[in-house]
Design a protein that fits this description.
about 220 residues, 7-stranded mixed beta sheet, 5-stranded antiparallel beta sheet, globular
């Protein structure tokens, strides 16, 4: 799964995701937690690509209440096109979730130990995501998203059996393409990222608190 992530290098976010948009709603984050608002990249047909803040934890448009359940912060890639909460978004509400790292907890005799995982080149990447629009009883539109997960690669397997789907940069265009509505075309992209391009190391348990959001969280235990 993916329950926390970071987005710290935001100075060239618009350029990285080909968004022509001034005053992007972005600031460095070291410990993004569910229910928080984060930038999401999406594109509607015949419109320019946009970056917009959305709430982490997908609320299906048909939900009876404006509250995301913990289970919707992630969506399993397996069978995603058939699940009620995701079968419409996988067809026409796909998005990119900008990030530069994420956290996962490894079970041990000392309790759950947090690890920070990122790409070796430290570049910004994108999680494969889905979003939905929910209209509350007052008519307000609430925009929410989920991060898709898949089986762990060899780097992640000793830490956790699942990992978020990190899209290869060359596949981001296809994932966002509003002209692609066949879920079978895009679900083939929902595979583990190559472990040789990633790095993982233990970090402080201070990350356990969603209220802690400081640069020290992403440092290795040896340098913290």
């Amino acid at each position: 799964m993916c329950g926390r992530y970071s987005l710290t290098n935001v100075s060239h976010l618009g350029e990285r995701f080909k968004v022509k948009q001034e005053n992007l709603p972005v600031e460095p984050r070291y410990n993004v937690a569910p229910t928080q608002q984060m930038p999401v990249v999406y594109q509607h047909e015949n419109e320019e690509r946009k970056i917009e803040l959305m709430k982490w934890g997908l609320i299906p448009f048909w939900s009876k209440e404006p509250k995301a359940s913990y289970s919707t912060i992630n969506a399993r890639a397996e069978g995603i096109a058939d699940k009620p909460a995701y079968r419409r978004p996988i067809r026409n509400q796909r998005c990119l979730i900008p990030a530069d790292g994420f956290y996962e907890w490894q079970k041990s005799g000392l309790g759950k130990l947090p690890f920070y995982i990122h790409l070796k080149d430290s570049e910004i990447f994108s999680f494969a995501g889905l979003y939905d629009l929910y209209k509350d009883p007052n008519g307000q539109i609430i925009k929410t998203y989920t991060i898709i997960t898949t089986d762990a690669n060899e780097l992640m397997a000793p830490i956790h059996n699942r990992m978020p789907v990190i899209l290869h940069r060359e596949n981001e265009e296809e994932w966002l393409d509003p002209a692609v509505s066949d879920p079978f075309q895009v679900t083939r992209l929902l595979v583990p990222f190559p472990d040789g391009l990633m790095e993982a190391y233990p970090v402080s348990k201070a990350v356990n608190s969603p209220g802690t959001d400081v640069p020290e969280l992403i440092r290795t235990m040896n340098s913290a």
